[in-house]
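Q: What would this chain look like folded?
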Amino acid sequence: MLVRIAAMMLAVLAATEARKGEVIRKPVKYSITAPVPSEYLSPEAVPTTWDWRNVNGISYLSEPKNQHIPQYCGSCWAHGSTSAVNDRYKIMRNNSWPDIDLSIQVILNCAQSAAGTCDGGDDGAVYQYLHDKGIPDITCQQYQAADFACKPENVCRTCSPTAGCSAVANYTIFKVGDFGPVTGADAMMAEIYARGPISCGIDASYIEDYTGGIINNPTKDWNIDHIVSVVGYGIANQNNTNVPYWIVRNSWGTYWGNEHGFFYIVRGQDQLGIESACNWAVPIVPPGF
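A: My prediction, written as structure tokens:
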């Protein structure tokens, strides 16, 4: 029994340490060749509320993900960034068919030194990798929550019942053009409204037990260790007081948090670091899409 308890404690500690290491900053050289929304949109031009889940009854968000299956993997940095890019593809293409869903597994396989691994990584570095090299979609490589070697069959593959698995030679590469940082509530609102969701850092230790509602935690004792995607913002009336909030997509499954995998947090106070470390990217739509 003592051995079992000790093993369980070690497992919990290992999981905690892995989660705490999910954000590992990498050198990033941003590419910004055009004005950003906060430069060309006046505050009056930005709506007071905006939600990419429901724009005139239409959702422009890609499908939800769970980074922790089929096994634990500290890949929030890859999920948050690719989620925002997938959403922006839907926005740019006006929800047209087919959906574009980038392969997170190729990032884990081939961008380990540049962006990160299942032990942690950086969302901005994912955008740089997408800018410099690009990746295929998930029909080339499904998410396996593990780090594998970067070889042709681990970038795009097919399998048969007789010949096993082999590399695919011809497939579409998806890239981004400009990408850069954004901080502060006003600039974030302009960016989200004009171009779509963004990836942001947050202290995950304060959201692990989230069960719904708007998080209001003004503590300054936070440490960014998790990447999420901010998909919109709103205002709620609570006790006759207007409470501005962010609409945030997590990557722990739709069963988490009682809000279908999303959570809400007070806007305008940089709570838990949500407004201090965000990034955006502008996808390039390939020919035929």
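Residues 66 and 253 are 4 Å apart (CA to CA).
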